[in-house]
Amino acid sequence: MTFQENAQEYNSRRDSCHEWKGMTHIIPFLDLKKENLNLLKSEQQRLEKTLNLRKIPLFLENHEFHQDLNHANIINDKLLNPIDALLELEKVPELKVKYHIHGKIHGTVAGLFSHDIKYKQALKAAAGDKLNHIIVDDLRVAQECLNFLKKNRLNRCYFLPLKDLKTYPLDMVIKANGKILGKAMDLIEFDPLYLKAFEFVYGRVIIVEEIKTAINFKINATRVTLKGEIVEPSNVISGGYLFDP
Fold first, then answer.
1. Contacts made by residues 95-99, CB under 8 angstroms, sequence distance 24+
2. 69: containing domain
3. Is residue 206 part of a domain?
4. Judgement on whether residues 62 and 82 belong to the same structural domain of the protein
5. Least C-beta-crowded within 10 Å: which of 47, 92, 223, 245?
6. Final residue of a domain: which of 50, 73, 96?
């Protein structure tokens, strides 16, 4: 008997119980009421099960929405600095999947090497904006990062693809003395994994004591003084006060 049929029978017997007060009619009425309650419980369980099944996709959609919202907040927090946004991207696997980044974003040049404080001004001046270049695995990752920047309307960045970089470092020995301090590559420390990147940045840079030495040292390389003055191979000279925040 269905729930609707049972309800009709229930109403019919209830009416008869009002007409006949005898126990003969009341007992079947109570039995039917009990049966009806059982049907109500079964119906309640069915509805709860259906409702819970419907909640699952709603929960997943809600979870995905909040994930997207959190990811958007990460990007929005870094809007003024695309470098920070890219470095944050590397920390969140879900974001890398979402933006189809199929390799590693290693970090900026500045964040991946160390040096004696003595050479800080010279190395900073020699590298210039290259300190903010971002080291990635290869050209594919670089292109995927560009797509990320464009999709999120973030400013331009430069990428150094380790597997594809073309570099032309000095292949001669530079003997250090009191005035010529050595090749920049010999004065910094970094993971060998990043050799190509640092050859690109510092591979043709020589650190010297002062400007007179930089001018007189005739070599097809960039000479940089400890104060950050630069003499290019073309003999173009740059210098002045170097702000150090």
1. 95/71, 98/71, 99/144, 99/147, 99/148, 99/151
2. 3-73
3. yes
4. no
5. 245
6. 73
Q: How far apart are CA 245 and CA 238, in angstroms?
A: 20
DSSP string, 81-94: -HHHHHHHHHH-HH
Do 117 and 19 sit in the same domain of this protein?
A: no
- Picking from 27, 45, 73, the residue at the C-terminal end of a domain is 73
d(CA 165, CA 167) in angstroms, rounded, equals 6
Is the pLDDT confidence value at 60 over 90?
no
Considering the domain architecture, whether residues 102 and 197 belong to the same structural domain is answered as yes
32 vs 95, residue with greater confidence: 95
How sure is the predictor about 45, in pLDDT bands with cuts at 50, 70 and 90? confident
Comparing 180 with 48, which gets the higher pLDDT?
A: 180
Q: What is the sign, positive or negative, of the torsion defined by CA atoms of 110, 115, 118, 122? A: negative
Encoding tokens for residue 159?
């990428």
What amino acid is encoded at 8 in this protein?
Answer: Q
Read off the CATH number of the domain in which 111 is found. Answer: 3.30.70.1620
Residue 118 has pLDDT above 70, yes or no: yes
Q: Are residues 181 and 206 in the same domain?
A: yes
**Of the candidates 197, 201, 227, the residue with the CA atom closest to the CA atom of residue 212:** 227
Residue 78 has pLDDT above 50, yes or no: no
Domain assignment present for 245: no
- pLDDT of 47 reads 65
**Range ranked top by mean pLDDT from 34-38, 42-46, 91-95, 161-165:** 161-165
* Residue 137 pLDDT level (bands cut at 50, 70, 90): very high
Instruction: Give the containing element (helix H, strand E) for 28.
Output: helix 23-77
